[in-house]
Task: structure prediction
Amino acid sequence: MARSEFVQLFGPVQDAGSWTGNPVAGQWSWIGSATTASTKTYEFQYVFPSLLKAEWRVLWRTHSIYQYVGLFSMDDGPSNLIEIVQMTGDGTGNPVNQAVDVTTALNTLITNQVHKNIGFKVWGDSTPTAMQIYEVRLELVWSS
Result:
């Protein structure tokens, strides 16, 4: 029997409680001052069932098409950051709900059986207008 799980990496929060900021131009950065607000630890070194489906979902708004969010796997520290996937802002200034399939990438981590942290970072440009993040989550469907 399949089992669903929602893993909150940030939020959910309404407009007044969302993260709003200008990410550092030209580089990936954490929101806030620590990784703990946007990462979760997975003990993949133990036996995990495979994933039937995994989606990474971000509810956000941007004022530039050059603002991004990226999902990463990493070791403790954090070190050895590996980008799994990134999403591009639509630049409209309107809230959007974007999702991307990450089933293959997460099943690879499960198969490799190593301890990993999963988290997200943001990328900015020189646009003076901020991006706003309402929620970031993984939607997982486990095989058992």
Observations:
- The CA atoms of residues 48 and 110 lie 6 Å apart.
- Helices lie at 103-112.
- The beta strands are 3-10, 19-21, 28-29, 39-43, 51-61, 68-75, 79-88, 96-101, 115-123, 131-142.
